[in-house]
Every structure is written in C-alpha cells, then in structure tokens.
Design brief:
The protein folds into two domains: 6-178, Rossmann fold, CATH 3.40.50.620; 191-282, Pantoate--beta-alanine Ligase, Chain: A,domain 2 (2-Layer Sandwich). The chain is built from ten helices and nine strands. It has helices at residues 11-22, 39-51, 79-88, 99-102, 122-125, 129-144, 156-168, 198-203, 206-219, 224-237, and strands spanning 6-8, 28-33, 54-59, 93-95, 148-152, 174-178, 241-249, 264-272, 275-282. By secondary structure, the protein is of the alpha/beta class. The strands form two sheets. The chain has a six-stranded parallel beta sheet with strand order 1-4-3-2-5-6, sandwiched between helices. It has a three-stranded antiparallel beta sheet with strand order 7-8-9, with helices on one face. Bound molecules: pantoate. Pantoate is lined by residues 32-34, 62, 65, 133, 136-137, 155, 158.
Length: 283
C-alpha cells in the first residue's frame, strides 16, 4: 500500500500545506535530504513517523555545501524513485524547492557556527561545508517549523552541528539522531556509494572494520594513540587515502588524550578512487 505525498515547490504553497497538515494538533517531523534516497533515509523516515503524526521530507541538493571542485553537478538525482519510496512510507509532504527559491537573487546571509563545526574534522577538509549546511538547515527549519528533525548519525559532526544550532538559535526544533544503516558487509549506506567501482565496493567495508578494530582495542584498554594508529594503518593498507581517522569526545568532538577523558567516538573520512566516504562508530 502506498499513498502519494503532497509535493510542494514554493514557499507560499508550503505555508498553505503546512497550515492544513498542522491542524488538529498534529505534531510534525522533518527529514532533510538531498534525495538519491536509500534504506538509510527510509530508516530516518520511519523514526520520524514514530515521533510525529505528520512527516515532511525535504529533497534539495544544496549547492552552498559543495566547493566548486566537488560533485554538485554529478551528485545522484533519482527523483521518481525517491517519490516512490516516500509514497511507500506514507510520507505526508515532500518539500522540493529549486535553487532560486532557496537562494533568491541577492541572497546574502549565512549562518556561522563554531564549537563542533570547528572541531578540525570535516571542516578541515571541506571548509565551506558547515556554512552551507547550517544555512540551508536553518532555512528548512524556519520554513517548515517542525517539532522534530531527524538526521543520520553517519554524518556525526553534522548531527552535532545542527543540534547545537537549533539550541543556540532557539529554533524550537528537537533534533534526533538516527543509527547508521549498513550493508550486510558493514559499509555505511550513502548516496555516493553508487560511484564506487566493483573493486572499490569490495574494499569499502574495510573502513568500518578498521574503526571496529580500533574501538575493540580501546575497549580492551589499549593506549588511545596506538589503537587509533592501528585502525588508520588497516584502512590505509587496504588502499584508502585518509583525510582523518580520529578518536574524539563523543559529545563535543574535541580531541582527547586518553579513554578517561570521556565517551569516545571514532570518526573517519577517506577516499577510495574518486569517492570520499565518511563514517564513525561509538566506542
Ligand atoms: O545530510 C544531508 O543530506 C545534507 O547535508 C542536508 C542535511 C540535507 C543539508 O543539505
């Protein structure tokens, strides 16, 4: 059974649709996406459905979070399949603005975040990224005004950044993190996995295995730097070019010197061929 979601592309139409959806004391959850939906996104939608009576999914490939050298133009776009998946999940509304609607001529505002956004992880390699993400997510939150918003833990630093932003700016949205969904061999689901060649796809799960091995050593009481370096070597040995492979404080993402310094999270970003994968695990 599937039910076609309402598809809305302008801000006035969104306001009207939300007025109808929010009648009768409905609660709303927003799942922000850039489309190319996979089972990971479906799990976000399912969590949203458990939290709220109405679910809105935004599909917008946000140009401001891509550097000119990055894959904005080749980012996978699978509109028809996306709508079919969201219909099967009985999503209420798809918010699908175009670039002009989100960034009209003369657009000159940016949300600048610090704290987890300057932890020296993604921000070190993609300095433009969080300015683009927070600006678009800030806009999505003010356009949709949801009670909840669901983000995947796979983009762990992004989750921390938008959680902080929603609190700092009193946006009235409760941000919820959702567990990473993995393929059977451990590779985290990502829209960019389609870019992997068959050989790269076979190697890709080593990144998760390397983090799990480092987490195992940390739990066993190994020295933090030795466990970290061992994991990084495993991934590099399989052919990954690492941007980072780090053990950080799970809450603040600040560097830590030993396991005594707090709950730990291992976070990595690495390239295999031309594809950049990011992932993380709890310790
Ligand atoms: O995680 C993503 O897909 C994007 O960064 C987001 C949150 C939809 C903002 O464009």
């Amino acid at each position: 059974m599937s039910r076609s979601p309402m598809i809305v592309r302008t801000v006035p139409a969104l306001r009207r649709a939300l007025d109808r959806l929010k009648a009768k004391k409905a609660t709303t959850a927003l799942v922000p996406t850039m489309g190319a939906l996979h089972d990971g996104h479906v799990s976000l939608v399912r969590l949203a459905k458990r939290r709220a009576t109405r679910v809105i999914v935004s599909i917008f490939v946000n140009p401001t979070q891509f550097a000119p050298s990055e894959d904005f133009s080749s980012y996978p776009r699978t509109w028809k399949a996306d709508v079919a998946k969201l219909a099967a999940e009985e999503v209420d509304l798809i918010w699908n603005p175009d670039v002009k609607t989100m960034y009209p001529d003369g657009f000159a505002t940016r949300i600048l975040t610090e704290g987890p956004a300057t932890a020296g992880l993604e921000d070190r390699f993609r300095p433009h990224f969080f300015g683009g993400v927070t600006t678009v997510v800030g806009k999505l939150f003010t356009q949709v005004r949801p009670d909840f918003a669901v983000f995947g833990e796979k983009d762990f630093q992004q989750l921390r950044v938008v959680t902080r932003m929603a609190r700092d700016l009193d946006l009235g949205v409760r941000v919820i993190g959702s567990r990473t969904v993995r393929e059977r061999d451990g590779l985290a689901m990502s829209s960019r996995n389609v870019n992997l060649s068959p050989e790269e796809r076979r190697t890709a799960p080593v990144l998760y295995r390397a983090m799990k091995e480092a987490a195992r050593r940390l739990r066993a009481g190994d020295d933090l730097e030795a466990a970290r370096a061992g994991g990084a070597e495993l991934a590099a040995g399989a052919g990954f070019a690492l941007d980072y492979f780090e053990v950080r404080h799970a809450g603040t993402l600040a560097p830590i010197a030993s396991a005594k310094d707090g709950p730990m999270r291992i976070l990595t970003a690495a390239r295999i061929g031309t594809t950049r994968l990011i992932d993380n695990v709890a310790v």
